[in-house]
Amino acid sequence: MKKSLTAALVAACLLLGCGKGSDGTDGSGKTYRDDVSAQALVEAVASELAEDYWPDTTLAPEYLEELYGVSSELYEEYYGQTPMISANVDTLIVVKAQSEQKEKVEQSLKTYQEAMIQDSLQYPMNIPKIQASIIRTFGDYVCFVQLGGSMEGMEDDEEAAVKACQEMNEKALSVIEGKLTE
Question: Which of 44, 149, 150, 154 is the most exposed place for a label (fewest CB within 10 A)?
């Protein structure tokens, strides 16, 4: 009985596509396009969020490697933006990873994210943005989203600020996913 149950579960996973696929799927069975430029995805988010989108400076490849740990051999292309003023942390990076390098790109971005969360020398207005940052993968596109805009009026309610940042990040990711599933 136990062996047949295990066999049935394995068969169900194979039929339903459990785990990450190498065919543009993310394990949920969704298939994503791979012909959209990373820059087009970032620009779509900037357009959708309008004045709430603060990153305004293109992230140079050397910074992608030095700050985020993502070297050029890990990706086909990337596009990222950060604010020109270093007092802000609003950031959006989309990396179209080499298929076999997705996990390395994800891990590099997670390492950066964890270091930012542990850094106690942050401006108070940036803490909710950092805590709400998200890394998500759609096919071969790995996204690092750390947005929040002005945070005006939320200075005294960190929980509400984190929630607002999470909502903005999810909205950005929804725009990216929409462009990759059109």
Answer: 150
